[in-house]
Design goal:
This protein is elongated. The protein contains one helix and eight strands; from the N terminus they run βαβββββββ. The strands form two sheets. A four-stranded antiparallel beta sheet has the order 1-2-6-5. A four-stranded antiparallel beta sheet has the order 4-3-7-8. β5 and β6 (75-79) form a beta hairpin. The chain has 117 residues and is mainly beta.
């Protein structure tokens, strides 16, 4: 009998980046990427790892997210901020806390309504 033993991602080495973390704009679809890494900090792909991602607005209300697993083992997280102000992004890996990030959702000025004097 041959048994394949698969390693797991190291939650402390997971990388999170993208405009959905650094510069989200209210009512504009945005995204960020979660890149699992192994204990050496190298990108890692696993069929057994599970990431749970929540985004909460400044009132603590969940913002709907869509998580897309990619072929390289990363996850694209898509969402649309619904209000300005601070928001919290929380990421867990196999029920283990990975990261909690804060970002500030900025307002958006529609050029149709900007008055230039």
């Amino acid at each position: 009998i041959t048994i394949s033993v698969e390693d797991r991602a190291d939650p402390t080495k997971t990388v999170v980046d993208g405009s959905g973390v650094t510069a989200p704009i209210v009512n504009e679809p945005t995204m960020f990427v979660v890149r699992p890494c192994n204990k050496e900090g190298k990108p890692f792909k696993s069929s057994i790892d599970k990431f749970d991602i929540t985004v909460k607005d400044s009132d603590g209300i969940n913002v709907p997210v869509r998580v897309e697993p990619k072929s390289d083992g990363s996850y694209e997280v898509h969402y649309t901020p619904v209000k300005t102000g601070p928001q919290t992004i929380q990421i867990t890996h196999n029920n283990e806390y990975v990261k909690e990030l804060s970002s500030n959702v900025i307002g958006y000025s529609d050029p149709k309504f900007v008055v230039v004097e």
